Amino acid sequence: MSPQAARAPRRREPNPARLDRLFHALADASRRQMIDRLSAGPASVSELAQPLAMALPSVVKHLAVLESGGIVASEKRGRVRTYRIAPDALALVETWIAERKARYQSQFDALERYLASQPDEDEA
């Protein structure tokens, strides 16, 4: 273990089940299309269903997956259920990706330093 790793505070890994639900929610093109629409502002189920070639019950199931993944939140007023993007909806994914990117980037940096320290083949 490197001295930096020994001193660095241990980050608490996110709940794997929560991360799985989030990635599962993002895995479907129709759900991503709904997220794109909701990024412009709240929308009712019927508004979200309009551009999709699927029945309303299927749209509701997709929205349940998005809600389970923590990406959207809903509110019911009378007979209308409105969905909106949840605050910090994708923060967990962004953090997870950034941590992995930093890890592999440090490996590339170490390789670059190693290669730079080696004599050129022409000089040998």
Q: In this structure, how is the largest beta sheet organized?
A: 3 strands, antiparallel
Supply Rg.
22 Å
- Strand segment tally: 3
Helix content, binned percent? 55-70%
Q: Give the class from helix and strand content and strand pairing.
A: mainly alpha
Distance between the amino and carboxyl termini: 33 Å
Strand arrangement, major sheet: 1-3-2
Helical stretch tally: 6
The H/E string reads HHHEHHEEH
State the shape.
Answer: elongated
Mean of all residue-level pLDDT scores: 87
- Which spans have pLDDT < 50 for at least 5 consecutive residues? none
Q: What is the strand content?
A: 5-15%
3D structure, described in words:
With 124 residues, the chain is mainly alpha-helical. Helix content is 57%, strand content 11%. The protein has six helices and three strands. The chain has helices spanning 3-7, 16-26, 29-38, 45-49, 56-68, 91-117; strands spanning 43-44, 72-77, 80-85. A three-stranded antiparallel beta sheet has the order 1-3-2. α2 packs antiparallel against α5 (56-68). The longest helix is centred in the last third of the chain and has 27 residues, at 91-117. The chain starts with a helix and ends in a 7-residue tail after the last helix.
